[in-house]
Every structure is written in structure tokens, then in C-alpha cells.
Structure to design on (672 residues):
């Protein structure tokens, strides 16, 4: 292991064996529609509540992930997951149904990458042969829980983000594959004192920049060492702030920079500043981005997943919005 | 590492360098009063909301922990924490104030031990020199969030548990000390279909038994190999079920068995079936139990922290209550 502190360069191999994604109808009609493994044609996913719908989403992403490698559940040592429901109940119920040893995680919309980093540590430390990770979010759950019941028809501001209905799952092991997990940096919680829950991109951009700068510094890399630098869900507003903050540190992002929240919806889809939610980076990275790595279109990717660590209670109590960002690097391997 | 699956026997040393606890007035008046590092004399902890009071509790536990070893915050590589607030916001705000790299965890009242297991994996894997962990709960936060506003004066049943106002923090490193972390078992989510949130002890007992049996089996140990087997917060009702379930597996618990939820309040304290909450096992284990190990009164302790993975939404939607239990073993070391 190269560093004893927040950045880890994995000394033992950690590979992505498989991944699976499942999304709702809006995401399935967007620019990345060809990349998702499963698209639900309605937001209820055949269930009676948003919470049950999100469970179905996460399970479908996991099933798609396992199916690709013909892996049965009893070959897996550990399940690491999280979601945005109060007390992360979607992940807990899915863990119950999987009957796997379970580690519950939470870092808001950065949860997918927190789980993947923890899984990588397990594989790198030879503590498990196969680790399954998952993260999800659902528009209906989040609107109800963090904002207003949709029936109120409260107007959104242009800087607001739309919670992605989506889930992503990854199967990790030390067995060689085309995608290797090579580095990771654990985020610190950054709070610039913003109070407006319609400005989450702006609240998260400083955390994303801080983690990116730390990762580049600790690994002695430049932004140009990666074919793609991808933030989680800063969306349009936050992405511009992120670019500016990196420039202040001497890092100039050009066409090799994208944001999952911007990528997931088309401009005609009325998605305000873009997508957010733990399912946003999960469904974009574990689908579209992994496909591009496997196809040889990308060789080195740095993902900086971002999370706004608020709750409806902290917002109502006028607490500022702290944010976190975790980074993970993927590299293409060709063993043919 | 002895096992590649859910049970880990740490091959490289992991030691408890220090621990700190802080509790509310009721806990501070109970049978363990001499063991806590800090007792608040009112439930508000000098703050204006229950949520801010819980933040103060967690910070005080951390300060007490660091103070004992004269450790400054900048020698610490990682902070791992969790709590019962929606979106674990208490931990996130404390992480913001500490400015440490942060991993957010959640497994309800088993969070203290989930965080400690993750920290042990970091130290065992030589990924960090010092890891700080913390967990907390607050009576006011939990009553409001999971049950009813206290002003409603809803009657509690005798099987109900009282949320502990308390926090515990641990500092881990590889440096030799009197308490070594030797083994851990990750819990699976068990759900016996119970629907009554006043019967959490009963809902959690099967998970506690499942983890205990798995841990003993994987480590080739018997209950008599430990001076103390300690469950998290099964309380009176759940403890009896746990004893019975272990008997069915051929394990007979005698006087070397206790439950943190039973220990923390005196019978005269009107605490119904006993204490619960992420701060329950944290304040009992990281205070009283560690003190007993250091004093040489206990040599080998197995803690099975228990968590009920419900939310107010899952209860209202009539979902059954899944539960989890994580186990960790401590052994006394004498280097004098």
C-alpha cells in the first residue's frame, strides 16, 4: 500500500468482475439509455410504494450484475450497500433478502463509491474472495423525504437537481478482468455555509475539488493522466464551480471532464440543473463508463462521487449543508 | 488472516489506544455512573435542539478519548462514525468539525461495533496509523424520530426500550496496549417477521444468536473461552430469547453473559425493558468493559452489538423489522 493516509494505492489486485444497473423511465429515455441493463417503464417498478419500488430497483441491479458472470449468491462473502432512505432501509431489506454478511454505509450521493472503496479494501486485504456492492435512489422517496410531497406541485428553481431513479451494483474480486481498481481517496467533510437545499451542486463542489486536489497530489498525477475525470452529481451549477476551484489549484479541466448528473438527462428532459442521488453516479459509472472502459474507449478514469450530508431536519433547523466526495480510479487492463 | 469470509481473525495487531464516553443525566445516575468519562446534567447538553445536543455528546466522547492519550487530531488518518439520526447527520457534522477523512456507517444500534470493525480492518491492513471511531444516540432525537413527540405522553409497554443518551469513541492503532482487537464477525440481516417497534429486543435476538453461533463456529471457540459475552441492547426481553436460541445450538450461557441495555439502568430507574440506541453499547463497552479489561478483571470479551434496521416509514408501512448483529472480540494484553 503506497500511502498510510487518506489516499490508497492498492498493492494487491482489485478487479471489477461485473456490474449491473437498473433505472426508471426518465433515465431510460435519456442520452445514456443504451447503457442501462434494465429500464423500468414506470416509477412504481410494479410495487405499491416508492420505498418498495426502490428495493426492486436495487435488487434488479444486483441480479443483472450477478447474471452476467453466472455468479450465484452463495459464492459472495460480503454485501456493502447504502441508500438515501432514512436509516438506509432499502439496503437493509435487500441485505435481508440476499442473506449475505452486510456492512451498511452512508455518504449521501457518494455512497456508491464509499461502498466500492470499502469493498476494494476487503479484496486488497485478502479478507474476502468476492464482495458485492450496491447503491440506489428513487425520485419518489427523495421528493417526499427531503422536499415536498409531489402532490403539492412546489416549483423548483433552475439550480435544483432531480433525484435519479436508479441503482447500480458491482462485483469485486482479485481475479483479473478488464477493469482494475487502482487508487482511492477518502473524502473530508467540507461546509461553505450554504443553506439552500436547491443549491446542492454548489454545496458539493468544494468537497469534490478538495478530494480531487488531494488525490492528484498524493498520487503525483495530473488531470491529463486520466482520460476522464468524472464528478458524481454536481450538475451544471456545481460543475462550473468545481472547474473554477480546480483552476485555482493549477488544474485545468478540458474535454476529459464530465459530471454524471449532467450526462444522465437530455436538455429537452426538463431536469433543471441535472440529476442527483446515490443512484446517479452508480447507474452512470457502473453502466456507461464501465462499458467505455471495456470497449477500450477509456483507459484511466477518476471518479469523484459527491454527497450532500443534509437531512430534512437539518434543513428545517437552518443548519448549513456539509458535503463529502470520495474518489476512486479505474484502469483498463488487456489480458487478451 | 484466518478466514476469508465473514469472520476475521486479525493477523496483524490492532489495539485500542484510548476510548472516551459521554452520557446524559439518566445514564449518569445509573449503576455504571463511575465508568463514564463525562456526564451531562441535562438532556440538552447546553444546546438548543436534541440534534445539537447529540453532536455535543459525540464531540465530548471524542475529546475525552483523545485527551487520555494527549493525541492531537492531526495525527489521525481516518474517522469512522454513525448514529441514528436520519441520514446520520450528527456524525457528518462532527466529521466536518474534525476535518478528518470520513467514512459514514450505519447498522442502527450495532453502528459502534461496525465502525470499530472497519477501523480494525484499516489498521490490520496497514492502511492507517490511527483510526478514530464514534457512535451516539440521544433520547430526544430518537423519541421524536422513531416514536412520538414526548409531549404526546404516549404510554410505553413494558417490553419497550429507552434510547440511551450517550456516545462512545475509540482510538485504534497497531501500537501495543492493554486491549487488543483479535476477531470480528460481520452480521447477516435476520427478520423473523415481527412488526411491533416496542419489541425490538425480540426482533434482534435471532440476529445476535446467529452471529454468535457463526463466530464461535468459525473461531473454534466455546462460550466458556470468553470471560464475558455481552450483547448490545437486547434488554430483558431479548436477552432471554437470545439465551434460549443459543441453548438450541448447544451453547449454555451462565454468569459470563450480560447485556448493555440491561446494565446501563437500575431497576428503580423506570427504564422499561432497558436501554437501546447506538450510544448504549458504545458507552458501556468503551467505558465500563474496557475499564474492567485494563484492571485485569476480564481477559477475553466477545461483544455482539445488535441493531434493529427499521425506520418510522417502514413501521408505518407495516414492514417487518429486520435486525443485524456484529461481533468483535477483545483480549487483555500485559506488556509490563
Amino acid at each position: 500500500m503506497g500511502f498510510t493516509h487518506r489516499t490508497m494505492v492498492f498493492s494487491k489486485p482489485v478487479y471489477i468482475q461485473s456490474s449491473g444497473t437498473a433505472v426508471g423511465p426518465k433515465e431510460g429515455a435519456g442520452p445514456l439509455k443504451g447503457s442501462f441493463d434494465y429500464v423500468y417503464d414506470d416509477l412504481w417498478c410494479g410495487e405499491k410504494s416508492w420505498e418498495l419500488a426502490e428495493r426492486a430497483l436495487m435488487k434488479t441491479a444486483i441480479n443483472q450484475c450477478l447474471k452476467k458472470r453466472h455468479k450465484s449468491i452463495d459464492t459472495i462473502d460480503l454485501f456493502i450497500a447504502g441508500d438515501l432512505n432514512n436509516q438506509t432501509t432499502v439496503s437493509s431489506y435487500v441485505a435481508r433478502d440476499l442473506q449475505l454478511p452486510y456492512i451498511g454505509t452512508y455518504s449521501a450521493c457518494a455512497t456508491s463509491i464509499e461502498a466500492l472503496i470499502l469493498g476494494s479494501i476487503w479484496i486488497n486485504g485478502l479478507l474476502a474472495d468476492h464482495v458485492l456492492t450496491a447503491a440506489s435512489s428513487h425520485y419518489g422517496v427523495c421528493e417526499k423525504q427531503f422536499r415536498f410531497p409531489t402532490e403539492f406541485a412546489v416549483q423548483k428553481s433552475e439550480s435544483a437537481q432531480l433525484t435519479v431513479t436508479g441503482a447500480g451494483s458491482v462485483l469485486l474480486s482479485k481475479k483479473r478482468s478488464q477493469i482494475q481498481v487502482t487508487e482511492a481517496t477518502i473524502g473530508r467533510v467540507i461546509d461553505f455555509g450554504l443553506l439552500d437545499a436547491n443549491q446542492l451542486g454548489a454545496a458539493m463542489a468544494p468537497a469534490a475539488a478538495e478530494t480531487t486536489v488531494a488525490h492528484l497530489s498524493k498520487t503525483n498525477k495530473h488531470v491529463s493522466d486520466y482520460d476522464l475525470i468524472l464528478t458524481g452529481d454536481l450538475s451544471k451549477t456545481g460543475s462550473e464551480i468545481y472547474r473554477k476551484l480546480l483552476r485555482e489549484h493549477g488544474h485545468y479541466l478540458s474535454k476529459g471532464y464530465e459530471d454524471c448528473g449532467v450526462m444522465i438527462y437530455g436538455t429537452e428532459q426538463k431536469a433543471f440543473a441535472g440529476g442527483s442521488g446515490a443512484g446517479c453516479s452508480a447507474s452512470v459509472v457502473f453502466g456507461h463508463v464501465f462499458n467505455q472502459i471495456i470497449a477500450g474507449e477509456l483507459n484511466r478514469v477518476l471518479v469523484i462521487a459527491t454527497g450532500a450530508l443534509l437531512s430534512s431536519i437539518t434543513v428545517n433547523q437552518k443548519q448549513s449543508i456539509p458535503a463529502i466526495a470520495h474518489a476512486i480510479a479505474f484502469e483498463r487492463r488487456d489480458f487478451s
